[in-house]
Amino acid sequence: MKVLVLFAHPVLERSRVNAVLVDAIRDLPGVTLRDLYEEYPTFAIDVAREKTLLSAHDVIVFQHPFYWYSTPAILKEWQDLVLEHGWAYGENGTALHGKITFNAVTTGGPASAYQRGGYNRFTMRELLAPYDQTANLCGMRYLPPFCVHASLLLDDERDVMPHARAYRRLLAAFVADNIDVARAANLDTLNPVVDDLPEDDGPGWGRE
Amino acid sequence: MTHGPLFLCFVFLAASVLVVPIAKRLGLGSVLGYLLAGVAIGPSVLGIVGHEGKEIMHFAEFGVVMMLFLVGLELRPALLYQLRRPILGFGGLQVLLTTLVVAAASLALGLPWKTAIAVGTILSMSSTAIVLQTLNEKSLLKTPGGQAAFSVLLFQDIAVIPILAVFPLLAVGDAVSEGAKGGRPGWLQGLLVLGAVGGVVLAGRFLVRPIFRFIAETRLREIFTASALLLVIGVALLMQSVNLSPALGTFVAGVVLADSEYRHELESDIEPFKGLLLGVFFVSVGAQIDFPFIATRPVVVGALVVVVVAAKLGVIYAVARGLGLDRSARWLTAFALAQVGEFAFVLLAFAGQVHVLPPDLAKLLVAVVALSMAATPGLFIVLERLVLPRVTTGEKRPHDEVTHDGNEVIFAGHGRFGQIVGRMLRANGVGTTVLDLDPEMVDVLRRLGMKVYYGDASRPELLATAGMADAKLFILAIDDKEATNKIAELVRHTYPKVKILARARDRVHYYELKKIGVHGAFRETYGSSIELGIEAFRMLGARARTAHTMAQKFREHDSRAIDKLADLWGTMDQDAYFSEVKRVTGEAERLMREEAGGPVSRDGAWDDESLRKAARDASDDAEEPTAPEE
Ligand SMILES: Cc1cc2nc3c(=O)[nH]c(=O)nc-3n(C[C@H](O)[C@H](O)[C@H](O)COP(=O)(O)O)c2cc1C
């Protein structure tokens, strides 16, 4: 399967986590990386181009830091403009039918905060409900997020590396169609899926 | 009484200057003003102008020719084609029916049938000069009624040609039946006519443009004016030489040039001449009215005028009704065209030559024609005060049929600067009218399919003909600082409702434009410098979004600083000003640096340093309580 990563970070030069994650998948065969803030610094999104890209891929990943329990602004703009009625949903809106989609999120809060009764009161899946339902409306298969929690405590590349490796293995598995989608759909996050993957997945990155 | 030409000029001008403004103030319109001025200086009142009035009138008839040229300039061929039905249908029926009605009446009064037909034809004509001038002055020309009237007038102008050809055949008795045709056989005459009209069309299409371009390149305005006049006079002479109506010929020339880039410039060049000549024409018509002659048979003349005007009015109203014009349009057309026109003078003179009319009758008719013309302004007053208020209630406002280009945006200058703005606007469907003084540029842009006119935007008439009164926005993008300021002032003053965006050469020019009160001034290299700056940041490794944010912030600081300086500029001496510049820009940069907190712009919210610290503290706290339990 072909994977499209729609990546959004407004100040990547200051990022510790996403910068490393994104570097980890940049050269992965079968993955197309779109750096939205770099493409559209003034938010003038090229809708036709984005639609072509969507059509050409099977798995759509929204990678972003968690900002105010949601995504950075450009992803919202992207949704508003690209997911046109009559194309993505509504009558004849079948362009995205059957595609798989999920978020790859880094959060400041730890996993324990994203629980009922936790500091942030809701689970990640609950907070990402708008993405879930958007996917549903567009006839897509929504999977739970891949999460890097407590990202503010990851001080340097060494700390981030295990997460980056996991992320890379996850995407590589999607490319190779090695994911049990039906099972994954019921999890809270995609992270356990990575643990079940066989070790020998594609070219090793960051293991030197 | 004979006087030198200069004295005559003085008399005509003085009479016009004295009487016309008063007439206009009283709501009588300029045409009646001119006519009254003519009456005043004519033989019956002051007697300053006698027989020379007639010659002057012939000369001033040229104003009509120019007017039709201007009318033609406003009418593209496509538009003319759209009007074909009213021209042929309405015009044809009007001339035919009026001729028949008047001829029948003349027959009943005992005139021989040939004379009766001649009288009918002569009286079926209306006055192009008076009607168009009046409709224009009252902004009625573009209403449905105005358009109908115009179509009829156009048909009459064309009809004069066959009428002149047929008149000799109507000669009574054994008069020589060879008139102005000069004995040419019919086929030759036909060929000549075709050749002349074809020549005008072809020359207009292929010759005039390069010639005007060549002349425009010299940038001698008076030579351009001279060549515009030359064109009109030349066409008129050509037409006369083949016995065609000069007015018709120049009308055709106007239509052919309506699409040309020089249209606006031609319009504003010819306009003042036309205005003056028409004025003189109306004055001489006024001076022509032979009151002593009328005084000998006031009842006959009076009755004839009333009957003729009423008959024409009735016929036109009936035709307009039959053709389905709405009520106000019907009345407007009927009242507007009820007088007899200046062509009648020509036809009467010609009819005398070819012995179609006995001299006494001709004299009587001249008086009737002149009086009916003089009655037109009165008829308009009746129409506007009594008739229209009754028929227009509940009817929707007549909408414009012939518009200018009707564009919201007018450009002065379409060189390196304006062109980009124009392309951007047009790409998004905004209509633009463009004036440019560089013939080469105009040529290139036209070849790219743009609507561009050659012309100097500092001329008030040109701005008017370009449609400034209806425009929303004026974009001043010429590269001449002095001219920019002059035009900006002119537009601010004349069209206070139109917004102005202007190109500024530099900072000082920016201040000047702000003082003039333009709605936006843009330093011409500023935008591209900022863009280059953005690219520079990116090449130094900055993210696109960050580079844009930094540029945007710089822009904001800079424009705040420059607006502060704009207020100071001109209030202090140079040195004080420049030290102020240094202070203000230095301050702006310092502020920016502080706000940014470093070489890379940071938005406070995204500075996650304090977030990290809080997170570390929190996780330490979280670990501590669990420790004892372990
Ligand atoms: C504007 C802003 C809003 C944030 N909102 C949240 C939030 O709602 N929940 C959360 O867990 N972390 C939040 N954070 C922390 C970010 O998720 C964290 O800084 C990010 O994941 C770190 O990734 P990076 O190093 O790639 O920037 C926020 C951070 C910023 C700057």
What key phrases describe this protein's structure?
heterodimer; A: 208 residues; alpha/beta; Rossmann fold; 35% helix; B: 630 residues; mainly alpha; Na+/H+ antiporter like fold; 6-stranded parallel beta sheet; 27 helices; elongated; disordered C terminus; binds flavin mononucleotide
If you had to describe this structure to a student in words, what would you say it looks like?
The complex is a heterodimer of chains A (208) and B (630). Chain A has 208 residues and is an alpha/beta fold. Chain A has one domain (3-194): Rossmann fold, CATH 3.40.50.360. Chain A is built from 9 helices and 6 strands. In chain A, strands 1, 2, 3, 4, 5 and 6 form a 6-stranded parallel β-sheet that branches. With 630 residues, chain B is mainly α. Chain B is built from 27 helices and 6 strands. Chain B has a 6-stranded parallel β-sheet with strand order 3-2-1-4-5-6, with helices on both faces. In chain B, helix 20 (439-447) links the parallel strand 2 and strand 3 (452-454). The radius of gyration of chain B is 34 Å and the shape is elongated. The interface between A and B is medium-sized, with 15 and 18 residues. Flavin mononucleotide sits between chains A (9, 15-18, 65-69, 106-109, 151-152) and B (605-606, 608, 611).
Strands, helices and their partners?
The complex is a heterodimer of chains A (208) and B (630).
Chain A: E1 3-7, H1 18-25, E2 31-35, H2 36-39, H3 47-55, E3 59-65, H4 73-82, E4 100-106, H5 124-127, H6 129-137, E5 141-142, E6 146-148, H7 157-175, H8 181-184, H9 191-195
Parallel strand pairs in A: 1-2, 1-3, 3-4, 4-5, 4-6
Helix pairs in contact in A: 1-7
Chain B: H1 5-25, H2 29-41, H3 52-60, H4 62-74, H5 77-82, H6 84-108, H7 113-124, H8 128-137, H9 144-166, H10 186-218, H11 221-241, H12 246-257, H13 263-288, H14 291-296, H15 298-322, H16 327-336, H17 342-353, H18 359-391, E1 409-412, H19 416-427, E2 432-436, H20 439-447, E3 452-454, H21 460-465, E4 473-476, H22 481-494, E5 499-504, H23 507-516, E6 520-523, H24 526-539, H25 544-568, H26 574-596, H27 609-629
Parallel strand pairs in B: 1-2, 1-4, 2-3, 4-5, 5-6
Helix pairs in contact in B: 1-2, 2-13, 2-18, 3-13, 4-12, 4-13, 6-7, 6-9, 6-15, 8-9, 9-16, 10-11, 10-12, 11-12, 15-16, 15-18, 16-18, 17-18, 22-23, 23-25, 24-25, 25-26
Bound molecules: flavin mononucleotide (FMN).
